[in-house]
Design a protein that fits this description.
Blueprint (H helix, E strand, L loop, with lengths): L1 H24 L2 H18 L19 H15 L7 E5 L7 H4 L8 E6 L2 H12 L5 E5 L27 E6 L8 H14 E11 L1 E2 L17 E2 L3 E3 L9 E4 H10 L2 E7 L16 E7 L1
Parallel strand pairs: 1-2, 1-4, 2-3, 4-5, 6-9
Antiparallel strand pairs: 5-11, 7-8, 8-9, 10-11
């Protein structure tokens, strides 16, 4: 029975790799079109809330849209400190999955800022969220990325966040650092430190390659990163930013360098670890500004 389960897992893993390679081989703009075509029948006939985008527009991953957003909102509440009057920054706001739970939480005095590089998501959030909740603002910031956008040469490593110093009570990034290279992450960490208020926290997800002395598997789960570049590892050398993993020691040193303190490190199950604290796919790193 155990052997059969292992065989099924390996088969699924190989199929996922094949599907990803086919998807990555498509031109970036065609990736969005293919998803719309695939989900067109479902979107045509399926009833949904006005705060749920059509499946054909969702470019941020699988899973139940509302359930995932609610689940992460509960994680934010459990590990981070914020109130209905807080100022929130959603880096890589996608198509509003993390924003929607905050619409029932933030007061008119609260503030929600999101930015993303994908126009589809910003347009949908502006039309469907900002129109009803004027304290929710979404900005399009075109940046070059192998997976999401190639029609600009502006790099994430060059971006200065369009917000004032010490202006946010909570910053979070879900599935953002998993699509960025070291120079980009180093800049974003520095900018997060700048815009966070003192003693406030950032919640970020990663794929973390653990240090050898931790004796934790790195390539036995649903994802593998066979291309080693020292502090970071790639799943696919042709589409580098499709999936990126980082050495744990590198991330911890980066936090220390920017006067940020690790408050929680929560393992994900992507690498094959079972019974993790939150049973999330990606690793979670939570840190605060000193």
């Amino acid at each position: 029975m155990v052997l059969l389960s292992g065989t099924i897992l390996n088969f699924k893993k190989k199929m996922n790799i094949i599907i990803r390679k086919i998807y990555y081989a498509l031109p970036v703009t065609l990736r969005y079109s293919v998803r719309r075509i695939i989900y067109f029948p479902a979107d045509l006939f399926q009833k949904r809330s006005s705060l749920v985008p059509p499946k054909g527009l969702i470019f941020i991953g699988s899973g139940d849209f509302l359930k995932t957003g609610k689940q992460f909102f509960e994680h934010f509440q459990r590990y981070c400190e914020f109130t209905p009057d807080s100022s929130i920054l959603d880096i890589g706001s996608g198509i509003g999955r993390m924003a929607i739970p905050f619409t029932n939480f933030l007061s008119p005095k609260g503030r929600y800022e999101g930015f993303d590089i994908v126009k589809i998501g910003i347009d949908w959030c502006t039309k469907n969220i900002s129109s009803r909740f004027p304290n929710f603002t979404f900005k399009l910031i075109p940046l070059k990325n192998d997976l999401y956008r190639l029609d600009t040469d502006v790099q994430a490593a060059e971006l200065k966040f369009p917000y004032n110093d010490n202006s946010f009570d909570l910053v979070f990034l879900t599935s953002v650092f998993t699509h960025m290279l070291p120079a980009d992450i180093e800049n974003y960490i520095s900018e997060i430190q700048r815009v966070l208020k003192k003693d406030k926290q950032c919640f970020a997800t990663f794929f973390i390659i653990y240090d050898e002395n931790e004796n934790i598997p790195n390539r036995t789960g649903t994802k593998s990163f066979p291309y080693n570049f020292g502090n970071y590892y790639l799943m696919d050398k042709k589409v580098k930013e499709a999936n990126v993993a980082f050495k744990k020691s590198y991330i911890l040193e980066l936090l220390k360098k920017n006067n940020l303190e690790l408050t929680h490190f929560i393992k994900g199950n992507w690498s094959g670890i079972q019974n993790t604290e939150l049973n999330e796919h990606q690793d979670i790193v939570i840190f605060k500004k000193l």
